[in-house]
Design a protein that fits this description.
single chain, alpha+beta, Gyrase A, domain 2, globular
């Protein structure tokens, strides 16, 4: 069955056959066969920035957390203050180990009857095991990741597309909010969220409704020249916005304070895993910080390339690309605090040559439409 893991092979999302029909280049990613591109990364990237695109994100994880102690459990496991969430609101947060290193960054949804946590695809099993190992009485934790397909409509025209699919008043739904609505007679959960810097909506679709919702979304997008978008453009879009990617920019060796995510660490909410280390790091300031770099020349900085200052390696690129929106190479990486001032110059080592780079203010792209 699509969505389930065949013996000895990667999973296929409920929309796999449509990717093949549309000529997608498929690659293994986080245990799934996923489309990396259709017409080309630059073409797809610009479609989302200027118009609208459709992503298959069914590889993401969905955990449901319910019970009388659900909020207490989430407060203990995550760094942000989930007590501030009202029904229909979404919060960006993360989970940390005792040493402050990051288990994962994630979204916490406050639903009518409890909470949903959306986890990164590559971390589903690890995250669930971590949560399960700290489970307390009065909490029900269920992994329903294999039960849902997830489609993301992203771009300045995203609202116009989704408005063709339902009578719901999408103008009334603010960014980082969640609701349910009928799409062609099917009641589904959806949110106004995304990973692109543009306005957008994400639809959580039970597998049995996948065909209907795919066809409905494609039909709604025709009027606005909506394009199918693969993982390649998703990566360049999020990088332009300095949105971190687990496994590249953040992992168990980095803390949210170092990575510029101190705003999702609420030290005054009470105890949570990693709090003492993060409190000390926030007070004393981290020894390194994740920064944005713009490079000179038409080069392609890649993960792992050395960052050099005064002839010595001082860090590595965590994410890099040639920005389709800006027409210049951009990268992220960790630098010692003394080198992180805006305007500071370092060099990126690419094929034994050094290319000048400047520390710039985030995000790289400043014209996004999300609200």
């Amino acid at each position: 069955m699509e969505g389930k893991n065949p013996v000895g092979g990667p999973k296929k999302t409920p929309f796999y056959k449509y990717h093949i029909e549309n000529g997608a280049k498929m690659v293994p990613f986080a245990g799934y066969l996923m489309p990396v591109q259709y017409t080309g990364i630059t073409d797809e990237h610009k479609a989302v920035r200027n118009n609208v695109g459709l992503f298959d994100l069914s590889h993401m994880g969905e955990f449901f957390i319910n019970g009388p102690k659900a909020l207490d459990f989430i407060q203990k496991m995550t760094t942000n203050d989930a007590s501030l969430l009202k029904i229909g609101q979404i919060q960006y947060s993360c989970m940390c180990y005792d040493d402050g290193g990051m288990v994962d960054d994630l979204l916490v949804y406050r639903l009518n009857d409890g909470y949903m946590m959306v986890a990164n695809a590559s971390n589903i099993d690890k995250d669930f095991d971590w949560l399960n190992s700290h489970l307390i009485d009065g909490v029900e934790l269920v992994n329903r990741s294999d039960e849902y397909g997830l489609l993301a409509i992203q771009g300045p025209d995203a609202r116009k597309v989704i408005s063709q699919m339902s009578d719901f008043n999408f103008d009334a739904l603010s960014y980082y909010h969640v609701a349910t609505a009928k799409f062609g007679g099917h009641e589904i959960l959806f949110s106004r969220t995304g990973y692109t810097g543009e306005d957008g909506f994400e639809l959580y679709i039970p597998n049995e409704l996948a065909d209907d919702l795919w066809k409905m979304t494609i039909e709604a997008g025709k009027k606005y020249n909506m394009k199918l978008i693969g993982l390649g453009a998703r990566d360049s879009l999020r990088l332009e916005m300095k949105m971190t990617l687990y496994g590249n920019d953040i992992d168990k060796t980095t803390t949210p304070i170092e990575s510029g995510l101190g705003w999702i660490v609420k030290l005054d909410k009470g105890d949570f895993i990693g709090r003492d280390v993060l409190k000390k790091q926030k007070e004393e300031k981290p020894e390194r910080r994740l920064i944005c770099l713009e490079l000179e020349g038409r080069v392609f900085p890649r993960q792992g390339y050395e960052l050099v200052s005064d002839g010595a390696m001082v860090g590595r690129v965590t994410s890099g690309t040639f920005s389709p929106s800006l027409g210049k190479p951009i990268a992220m990486g960790y630098l010692p605090r003394k080198l992180t001032k805006l305007g500071n110059r370092v060099e990126v080592k690419i094929r034994d040559k050094l290319f000048p780079a400047t520390v710039v203010k985030s995000p790289f792209y400043k014209e996004g439409t999300h609200r």
